[in-house]
């Protein structure tokens, strides 16, 4: 029997995050175009009597080790689906920014589902894992699938989108994180203060065409994030970071998800290097990557 399983899982950038009206259940209807990028966490599930978690790597001290940890919650949900108690030590090696709007916690939950399913010999289908993932959070199902996909509902109902070629990205990391519920709350507050009524969101035809055609300039012009004004209101320095990237020729620039990571689309790998150098003075750290890449996979 396997004594340990390691799964590699990517972070994501939201190419379109359109936020609809607030629903009765406290969530918003979304159109959320997820794009998996080559910033990876690794989660190893090791045979053990009980469920525990240990975190290594970038900003490891910011990751909860109790019941709030999404990877632990994922493993518990998987054991509950199997109908019996299981144990594992989950070792998370972080490279995806913590609380950075790139779904690092959700990625770790997806990886824990895949790793524990293999470790415990459950043999669940991807559909089964996606059902469990949807109950854990809106971003978890996409981390299982990877690639590029549009999410509707809370973002958990996914449809893959066709993509031609590879897109090159630079990510400016900020000090500290932003609370996703706080950013959504600020978005609602700003809309109410402006007398703005939220429209029902729809997938951007221009963005979908740019992805299908491998049109990086067209994609850059189509990037949109309805949460960006709220994230900037809560972290004013993000406006300067975005402007630095635009001034250095980024094809597109936006706050990733609920922030505070800022994402910049580059013309090429060489241009990404130039952007990285320029952005170092405007943020805590800079990392680069490319997409799309596959979702959670055993390595």
TrEMBL record:
It catalyses: 4-CDP-2-C-methyl-D-erythritol + ATP = 4-CDP-2-C-methyl-D-erythritol 2-phosphate + ADP + H(+). Belongs to the GHMP kinase family. IspE subfamily. NCBIfam families: ispE, PRK03188.1. Keywords: ATP-binding, Isoprene biosynthesis, Kinase, Nucleotide-binding, Transferase. It comes from Acrocarpospora macrocephala. It comes from the Bacteria. Residues 208-283 form the GHMP kinase C-terminal domain. Residues 69-147 form the GHMP kinase N-terminal domain. One of its GO terms (biological process) is terpenoid biosynthetic process. ATP binds at residues 97-107. The active site is at residues 12, 139. Catalyzes the phosphorylation of the position 2 hydroxy group of 4-diphosphocytidyl-2C-methyl-D-erythritol. InterPro entries: GHMP_kinase_C_dom (IPR013750), GHMP_kinase_C_sf (IPR036554), GHMP_kinase_N_dom (IPR006204), IspE (IPR004424), Ribosomal_Su5_D2-typ_SF (IPR020568), Ribsml_uS5_D2-typ_fold_subgr (IPR014721). Its EC number is 2.7.1.148. This is 4-diphosphocytidyl-2-C-methyl-D-erythritol kinase. Pfam families: GHMP_kinases_C, GHMP_kinases_N. It is an enzyme of class 2 (transferase). Pathway: Isoprenoid biosynthesis; isopentenyl diphosphate biosynthesis via DXP pathway; isopentenyl diphosphate from 1-deoxy-D-xylulose 5-phosphate: step 3/6. GO terms for molecular function: 4-(cytidine 5'-diphospho)-2-C-methyl-D-erythritol kinase activity; ATP binding.
């Amino acid at each position: 029997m396997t004594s340990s399983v390691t799964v590699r899982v990517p972070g994501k950038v939201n190419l379109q995050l359109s936020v609809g009206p607030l629903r009765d259940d406290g969530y918003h209807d979304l159109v959320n175009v997820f794009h998996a990028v080559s910033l990876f966490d690794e989660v190893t599930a090791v045979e053990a009597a009980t469920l525990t978690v240990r975190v290594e790597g970038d900003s490891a001290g910011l990751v909860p080790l109790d019941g709030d940890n999404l990877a632990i919650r994922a493993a518990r949900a998987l054991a509950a689906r199997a109908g019996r108690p299981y144990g594992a030590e989950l070792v998370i090696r972080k490279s995806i920014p913590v609380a950075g709007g790139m779904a690092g916690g959700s990625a770790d939950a997806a990886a824990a589902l895949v790793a524990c399913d293999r470790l415990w010999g459950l043999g669940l289908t991807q559909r089964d894992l996606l059902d469990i993932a949807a109950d854990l959070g809106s971003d978890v199902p996409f981390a299982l699938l990877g690639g590029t996909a549009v999410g509707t509902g809370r973002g958990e109902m996914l449809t893959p989108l066709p993509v031609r070629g590879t897109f090159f990205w630079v990510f400016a990391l900020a000090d500290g994180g932003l609370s996703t519920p706080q950013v959504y709350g600020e978005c609602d507050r700003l809309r109410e203060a402006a007398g703005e009524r939220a429209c029902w969101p729809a997938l951007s035809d221009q963005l979908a065409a740019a992805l299908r055609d491998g049109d990086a300039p067209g994609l850059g012009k189509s990037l949109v994030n309805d949460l960006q004004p709220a994230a900037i209101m809560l972290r004013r320095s993000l406006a300067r970071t975005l402007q630095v990237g635009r001034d250095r020729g980024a094809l597109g620039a936006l706050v990733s998800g609920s922030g505070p990571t800022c994402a910049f689309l580059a013309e090429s790998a060489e241009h990404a290097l130039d952007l990285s150098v320029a952005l170092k003075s405007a943020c805590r750290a800079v990392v680069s990557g490319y997409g799309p890449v596959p979702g959670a996979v055993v390595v």
